[in-house]
Structures are given as C-alpha cells and as structure tokens.
Write a structure and sequence with these properties.
Length: 664
C-alpha cells in the first residue's frame, strides 16, 4: 500500500555522534521537535516539543521558529520567534548541537511514498536489492542479523561490492564484502549487528546504510537504509570495602552503572540473623549511564556477648532497582564483634566485683550519674567547611567534652546544651562523641557525620572584557577549580575552539575565536562528588568598532569612485566600521547621524583591530553596465538620421544629509 503526497523538500539531520537521518517533506506543512507527533522527531534535550515549522507555498518554502527557548539559527543569526523567513534552495539550520540541512525540490512532481517494507528500483540499474525488513531491534552485547538479497538481472556474470556504513565502529560485520553473481541469479548476504556494552551509546534509532555497487560501473549503485533500534540496558556493579570490618568501623559502598539508561536504586542492609544494627548515609540513589557513586555506612551488634571469643556476623548490602526490571544485587560482608569480656577478663572482673561490692557497702550516698538523653546533628552530610550544630539534652553533668575521631575539640560547662563544630579540618566520614562527666563518671553518645569535598571555583577569567562587533578575534578563557569531578564550559555558537590546553579537571584554558554580535556570556559549571553543581559566568561586553578619517574623506554610494558622492566624513571625527569588501580596499562606515557610505580604506585609521578581521559585506553595490542602443534611421526624410544614445541615463543628485565641508 502506498500514499501519494506532494514532496516539496528533504531535511537531513546530523547528530553530534556523526550519524545522519534523512527525511522527505511532503504536503504543505512539516514540523520539527522532540514530540513524537512531529513530522520530523529529533533527539535533542535543548530542543522544544514543537521547535519549528516549515511551510511550502507557491513562492517556495519558509521556516518559522515556534517560540523555542533554545532558538533556531540560520547563518549564525537567531530567527525571530513566530515570524516566517524564506528558505533558499539549500539552507543550513542549527538547533542546539544539531545541524539540519534543507534541500528544496526543483520541480512540482508528485511522487509515491512507498511503505517501509517496499524497495524503490532506480532506472538504469540492471540488478535488484532488497532488505528482509526495514527495522531491527537489538540490545547491547546481543546481536541481530540483517538479511540482504541481491539479484543480477543482466545477461552476464557481474561482480559486486556491498558496503555497510552509518553505525558506530565495530557494530556491523562484515563492513565490506565483494562477490560474483551469475546472470539472472540471486544471493543472500547477511550482516551481523552487535553493539558493544557502552554507557555512552543511548537507546534510540541508528540508521544503517547499505550500498551495493556493481564493480566496473560506478554509476550502478543502490543504497538501502535499515533502522537499527538500540534498546536500553541497565546493570549495576557493587563493591564493599572493607568486606570484613570490625564493629562500628565505617565501610564504603562503591556503585557503577555500566548500562546506557539511568537506574534508580533502593538501598538496604539485610542481616539474616537479625543481630546487627546497621545504617547507611542514604537509602536511595539514582545513577546516570556510566555514573559512579560512593555511600558510607556502619554496623554494630544489637547485643554483644558478655563472655566469649570474637564472632563473625554475616550481612549483605542490597541494591534493588525501582524500575520495571526490579533486579536485585547484593554485596556480602562480615562484622567482627568482640565480646565484652574474654574468659580471663571475666575472672578478673569477678574478683573486681566482690572488691567493689565491699567498697559499695562502705558508701552510703553516691552522687547521681551523668546522663545524655539525646544528641542531634543539624545535618548528617555536609560539604567540608560547613559548620554543624550539635544539640543535646542531659542531666547531672558537671562538664562536657566533644571529640571527633577520638580527638578532643572542645571542653564545655555542664549547663551548655549546644555546640557549633567547624568541619574545615576534616574529610570523609567522622565519628562525633559527646561525653558527659561528673567526677570520674561519664556517659557517651556518638553520631556519624559524612563530610565531602565541595567543588570550588577559585578563578574563572577571560583575557578580554570587551570585544568588537563584527570583528573576528580570539578570546582566552582560564579556570582554576578544586574538588570537581566534572567540568563544562558553555560558549556562544558563533565562537569556535582554536586551541584547548591539556587541562586537568582543576586547571586549564581554552582559546575561542569568533565575531560577536552582542554582549555574551561564558559559563563554567563544576560538579562535585555528590552531584552538586556550582557555576560561574563571565560577561563580555561588545562595542562598535570605530575608525578615524585621516582627513576629510568623501563617502560614495558603493565601493567605487564611479558611484555617486553622498556625504563627507570629517577628519578625526569617529565613524562606525560596518564592514569591508573582500579585498579590504573599501570600508562601509556609519556617521553619527546614522547614515552610511563607502570610503577608501587608506583614508581611515582603525585602531584596536585589523581591517582583515572585519566582517565582509557579502553583496556590495555594483556599478551598472553601460550598453549602446542601435542606430535608428528615419525613412521619411533621407537626409535626417538619429544620433546613437547610451542606454544608461545620467542620474540627478539625490537629496541626502551631508556634513559641511570645511571652508577657508
């Protein structure tokens, strides 16, 4: 079954990874955007659901930006939202990181749009080729077979070559295959599609182009396209360190998502014997494709044996997917729990008990023991340098001691109920202990605090704060960042990278080159180990390039002295440089009144920039071509003839605004 529609053009979409999609535009209107109901659906996060519209009319095609946030650009200029702009026969369009090329059909023929399973046989080809299917679904590390049938319709044996392209390297085998085919016979060729397990290959459609060429006749080429639909793959790698830890000793869980889709995990600790009290810094995490994360935790025995030998208690950290697959991954570990007393210690304790019993008999009144009822932290996870507030309730304490990792940091009076702890000198998880003392009697309460290294942008600067409009120039941007696991520098589209240093994640520089049109911003984003992002931006002001006439300079209507003189640029009075001709011999300048004219380059001094870097006027005015009219002869009076005249009529001076010449 086929649907007949009027085709008015073709739209090729080039993605950043190098693959291209080609779409025929039929009917009167075609829309482009992320939403599936568009004529052309694109996979780009910066694009809108309905980004732009292409209309076909009697005078040609036009393009309209539908109010997108990222904008639509043609020749470096952003289109005005909801305002139609005519399209040329071939036009390049930019949407974010995507490059689209529009090709307008040169005729109004109506073509048949075949169904996906059909193949079109061009005229003049004496062989036929067809694919078994137009779409194939495959998952990473699995494989799919693409079957191609080739039929030699010529009366003699022929040699052919089949080449597959368009997919990432290593996906398709074989990539090229020559073969011989007898007259009027057919053969089947199979390609093995096996994508690698890579997190940077997102799920989606990848076009596979198969070209069949008859050797010896380069004009006989057939190209078939099959869509390879790559499915999503999710996985998880867990590692627990240390795998055997002592009671109360912190352990760390390291996670890696090797898949190409994000996964959301629920974390828990399973104790088969129900003998442990274990806790994690967080009970859930989301990992992007290829993402890594580290989470700390600790485990203690609910009840320690009174007498005996150290015992190993097994437990497992469980990560369960919250997605449809609901897979579960476990990381086993053990906790070594020591008894309160060894056998020897128990004997000594018994002797000590009776000694204490005798001592207690002699004591009639004992002072009350200190007691800590509660201890709370204002935050359980902070960036290094962020203060943490400790709040507690206690009774019968003469004084308090605050310890961090068993090192004393503060001595406080017994009436204090809060303390602000600085984390500037600490890293990684720490144990905070509050000790209440009354004489030699103490009570201790502990809490765990996770401290991570934040991303800090120490310096982010450019070597220029001002650039000139329409003047191509270089801009060097430098940065100094600490604590970051990832950096991103966002720059304007009209700038390209000239040089990028061998920068580390902490320090580097990049040289950009371009001709700005308005004030612009360069943004640096740094991501720390827990995914928090800090940003810093630089604003570069853009001003008009100015030139000074070396003397009173005549301005013309075009870049030639044959044009009409329209005004005068006064010596040492600044004018704005709007552009130049290709060889740089003439400048288009603008006076303070807003009027523009062409002046000879050598009559102006342009400081602060090189004329060769100024934008070139693409279509400067041209002098008209003078042609002679044919001689006319009067027949009524043989003695009288008409004098030949020129086809061009001398123009009269126009009324224009000029600056007065200096008078003597």
């Amino acid at each position: 079954m086929s649907l007949t529609m009027a085709v008015f053009g073709r739209l090729d979409v080039l993605y950043p990874d190098g693959h291209t999609e080609s779409h025929r535009l039929a009917g009167n209107v075609a829309t482009v955007g992320r939403a599936p109901d568009n004529t052309v659906q694109i996979d780009d996060e910066t694009s809108a659901a309905q980004h732009l519209r292409i209309d076909a009319g009697a005078d040609g095609a036009s393009i309209t930006d539908l109010g997108s946030a990222a904008g639509t650009f043609i020749s470096g200029q952003r289109l005005e939202a909801r305002s139609a702009r005519p399209l040329r026969a071939v036009e390049e369009i930019r949407i974010g990181a995507l490059r689209l090329t529009f090709y307008q059909h040169s005729d109004d023929a109506t073509v048949a749009m075949p169904a996906l399973s059909e193949q079109t046989q061009p005229a003049g080809i004496d062989f036929r080729a067809s694919l078994e299917r137009g779409e194939y679904r495959v998952f990473p590390a699995s494989s799919a077979t693409v079957s191609l049938e080739v039929t030699n319709r010529s009366p003699t044996e022929a040699a052919f070559r089949v080449e597959a392209s368009g997919l990432p390297e290593g996906w398709v085998q074989p990539a090229s295959f020559p073969f011989q085919l007898p007259a009027h016979e057919a053969t089947q060729i199979q390609f093995q599609i096996k994508p690698a397990l890579r997190s940077d290959m997102p799920p989606g459609e990848y076009p596979l182009t198969i070209a069949i060429t008859r050797l010896g006749d380069a004009d006989q080429v057939l190209r078939l396209v099959a869509i390879i639909k790559l499915g999503g793959y999710s996985g998880l790698s867990l590692a627990l360190a240390p795998a055997i830890c002592r009671e109360g000793e912190p352990f760390r869980l390291f996670m890696l998502n090797p898949g190409n889709v994000p996964i959301e995990l629920a974390l828990s600790i399973r104790d088969p014997q129900s003998r442990l009290a274990a806790e994690l810094a967080q009970d859930g995490v989301e990992l992007p494709p290829g993402g890594r994360r580290r989470i700390s935790g600790k485990a203690r025995a609910r009840r320690r044996p009174l007498i005996g030998r150290p015992e190993s208690i097994p437990f497992a950290l469980i990560a369960r997917s919250r997605g449809p697959s609901a897979f579960t991954v476990a990381a086993p570990a053990r906790v070594i729990v020591a008894p309160r007393w060894s056998y020897r210690s128990a004997i000594l304790a018994t002797v000590a008990f009776f000694a204490l019993l005798l001592a207690l008999v002699s004591v009639l009144i004992q002072p009350p023991e200190p007691e800590i009822a509660s201890l709370e932290l204002s935050q359980s996870q902070v960036a290094r340098g962020t203060p943490v507030q400790l709040n507690w309730t206690a009774a019968n304490a003469e004084r308090f001691v605050v310890e961090v990792n068993r090192a004393r940091v503060a001595d406080l009076p017994g009436d204090r109920r809060s303390f602000t702890l600085s984390t500037e000198d600490f890293a990684d998880p720490v144990d905070i202990a509050l000790i209440a003392l009354r004489g030699d009697v103490t009570d201790i309460s502990t809490r765990r605090l996770d401290i991570y290294e934040p991303a800090v942008i120490a310096d982010f600067a450019a070597d220029k704060s001002v650039m000139l409009r329409r003047v191509t120039d270089s801009l060097i941007v430098r940065w100094d960042v600490s604590g970051a696991v990832g950096l991103e520098v966002a720059r304007p589209l009209e700038f390209s990278t000239v040089r990028e240093s061998a920068a580390t994640a902490a320090r580097g520089e990049i040289e950009l080159r371009g001709a700005p049109h308005a004030d612009f911003e360069i943004r640096l984003a740094a991501e720390d180990e827990i995914g928090a992002v800090v940003e810093r931006s630089i604003t570069i002001a853009v001003k008009e390039p100015e030139c000074l006439p070396r003397q009173d300079a005549l301005l013309y209507a075009g870049p030639d002295t044959g044009f009409q003189q329209i005004m005068l640029a006064v010596e040492n009075v600044p004018v704005l440089a709007r552009g130049a001709v290709k060889d740089g011999g003439w400048l288009l300048v603008e006076l303070a009144s807003g009027k523009s004219g062409w002046g000879i380059r050598d009559q102006f001094e342009c400081r602060g920039f090189d004329i060769s870097a100024l934008a070139v006027i693409p279509d400067p005015p041209q002098l008209p071509t003078v042609t002679a009219s044919p001689t006319a002869t009067a027949t009524a009076a043989p003695s009288a003839t008409l004098t030949p005249t020129l086809g061009a009529v001398e123009s009269q001076p126009a009324a224009t605004e000029t600056q007065p010449l200096a008078s003597g």
